Amino acid sequence: MYVYDQYDQTIVDQRVDQFRDQTARYLAGNLSDGEFLPLRLQNGLYLQRLAPMLRIAVPYGLLNSTQLRKIAFITRQFDKGYAHVSTRQNIQLNWPRLDEVPDILAELAGVQMHAIQTSGNCIRNTTTDQYAGVATDELEDPRPYCEIIRQWSTLHPEFAFLPRKFKIAVCGSAQDRAAIHAHDIGVELVANASGEVGCKILAGGGLGRTPVIGSVICEWLEKKHLLTYLESILRVYNQNGRRDNKYKARIKILVKAMGVDAFREAVEQEWALLKDGPTTLSDEAIRHAKSFFTEPAYLALDAAAANSELAARCAADPIFGNWVKRNTVDHRVAGYRIVNLSLKATGFAPGDITDAQLELVADLADQYSFGEVRTTHQQNMVLADVQKGQLYPLWQQLQKAGLATPNHGYLTDMICCPGGDYCSLANAKSIPVAEAIQSRFNDLDYLYDLGPIELNISGCMNACGHHHIGHIGILGVDKKGEEFYQVCLGGSQAKDASIGKILGPSFSQDDMPDVIDKLLSTYLELREEEEIFLDTYRRVGIEPFKERVYAKAD
Amino acid sequence: MPRLIKAGRIVEDDWQQLDPDAATAGMQQILGLDQWLQLEDKTGRAVLLEPGQAPAPLFDYLGQIPLVAIDFPVFMDGRGFSYGRELRERGFAGELRACGHFIRDQMTYLARCGFDAFQMADESRLEDALAGLADFSEHYQAAIDQPLPLFRRRG
Q1: B128-150 burial by CB neighbour count: b if 16+ within 10 A, else e?
Q2: Which of A56, A159, A175, B66 is 20 to 30 A from A9 (CA-CA)?
Q3: Taking CB atoms and an 8 Å cutoff, what residues of chain A touch B55?
Q4: What is the pLDDT of residue A554?
Q5: Domain with B138 in it
Q6: How far is Cα of residue B11 from the mean position of the Cα atoms in its chain?
């Protein structure tokens, strides 16, 4: 993974000093609430319902064991002993004290971490595929480009006061695991007709109040032009994006208003000025970024022996076998598997992890996966490089720690924002809804029979829980001071991305498990053969679901 | 006389902003964009851009303009950062002045975008703003103050 040199460290250390000074000036009354607001947001600090919330950046979801242990220490020392993995692959603390935040940032800087631009109207953490570098369907590892974008976007002098937040995702595989269509800019590594890998650039995607699937702005761009092209897009947006209404300020509204062709033309016009300038990536710059994401020291394992040994283990211990089947994924290298750690055990807020679990994951990463861990935008964690022969002892320890719930990709592996329990933006709570659904549908055989379903819950329009792109999406709404939940169906975050359609009038919190039950039984009755929920929905449309859910009792 | 930061020091301003309704303007006055556009001879005449007034109309005259002022009526409106940088990238070598309600914590960004004069609505904050220029000694991106991005400078 990327390792700071003296330049990176200087920048992060000076940022800590700057924020310490800003906090002191605020507490002394020399910086107004309004002035401190964007400054603290650009250091990840929200002032929430009960306490501040600090969002720590995890660039493209990559952490080493030292960093995990530091997070565990911070949750214990400065918080309540747990942290939360967000849909931007970041880590959130829900109970820090404002006056201690500079100390937390200093602790983070000591392990090459920070909270820079995890909030505010600026370029946020770049996200990517949690299986980057190990996926079997990968054209090229996206992480070097994520790191190049991270450096370029960090404290960018021109783009710190954009009309609204700005999110970039990069994907380099056949299957899109980074939801690039739902980002302000999506970058996909693709080969052109002659086989050279370059960047396809999408812009104007996003969720929130007006969900939009991104449009292709450039079909294929030479890699060396990546940053100048991004800079041109940002410059068009910074100058022309709406600033009069925060709900119309995202780039998606600008792209719609201008039309894709006019927007592209404006970008190309800016690009004429920047193209081939000093920000053009040199071969050396790309090589340097790539040098941090080389292969770890994989052993040359006997694939056949490893497979038969694993098969025997699975047969002897069916609970283990089931976990292998559900929570582990094929690895590019023979004899290895990718392991998903589920942070979706029933009874715990989705994405939450305790200090003890963090430390255990750090130890397991050191022992079994070259000391590295990934966070995922589905709010889980991944050990990317585990030998098949070591899956069994790993599983035993994960199970003891509550990190082996075999529900990866199933209904109860839901995305859920912190919602009204913590967030002051929320219209409604989301964690109790998630928990009620998890408790109701806790029969594993039933879950497996349902097949892969993505259920996403957001507590408000801001859509941190990605409800628009869940196969089933749930949105908390406020109706005259009471919390209600709107349901949408048919969203997808895959390459065939789609925005879910609203089912109809909203429901009370107590009704939600029944509503989900009706949706699922409608699907089970209508599905053909191996069809997953999303495909049945796409074939039959919303009506049968609507009829069932809103049917009057006779 | 109003004061501002120039070349890293607090100095007295030798320019005046022209009343938007004024019919004629003297040489040491900063004109609004509309007033400036109406001038037959733009040589030596300074102009003020508001957010929403992109700098494109100035591009043909960059060698003649001694001063471009860019207003920040609210500090959260970041259009002026792009205006300033774009003017510099196109070769503007005169004074590039930020004026209005920007704050100390934006000084590094402004300077990096090519601003070399800073006129704050509240002059009592100038001293503090001067200190803001020293927040960072190292940067990743190419900008006006450092034309090479870090990836071209890493040893």
Answers
A1: bbbebeebbebbbbbbbeeeebb
A2: A159
A3: none
A4: 55
A5: 3-153
A6: 16
Nearest to A122 by CA among A81, A164, A92: A164
Distance, CA of A296 to CA of A371 (rounded, Å): 10
A482-489 and A507-508 strand pairing: antiparallel
CATH number at residue B120: 3.40.50
Residue A49 has pLDDT above 70, yes or no: no
3-state secondary structure of A151: helix
Average pLDDT, chain B: 94
Total domains in the fold of chain B: 1
Q: How far is A8 from chain B (nearest CA, A)?
A: 8
A525: enclosing H helix or E strand = helix A512-526
Tens-digit pLDDT profile for residues A347-400: 899 999 999 999 999 999 999 999 999 999 999 999 999 999 999 999 999 999
Q: Give helix A283-290 / helix A143-153 axis angle, nearest 10°.
A: 110
Interface of A with B in 268-297 (CB under 8 A): 273-274, 277-279, 281-282, 284-285, 288
Residue of A nearest to B139 (CA): A11
- Taking the CA of residue A360 and the nearest CA in chain B, the distance in Å comes to 35
Q: Is B105 touching A (CB cutoff 8 A)?
A: yes
| B141 shares contact with chain A (CB less than 8 Å) | yes
Confidence of residue A209 (pLDDT cuts 50, 70, 90): confident
ipTM of the complex: 0.96
* Mean pLDDT over the full length of chain A: 95
Domains of chain A: 6-109 (3.90.480.20), 135-290 (3.30.413.10), 303-400 (3.90.480.20), 415-550 (3.30.413.10)
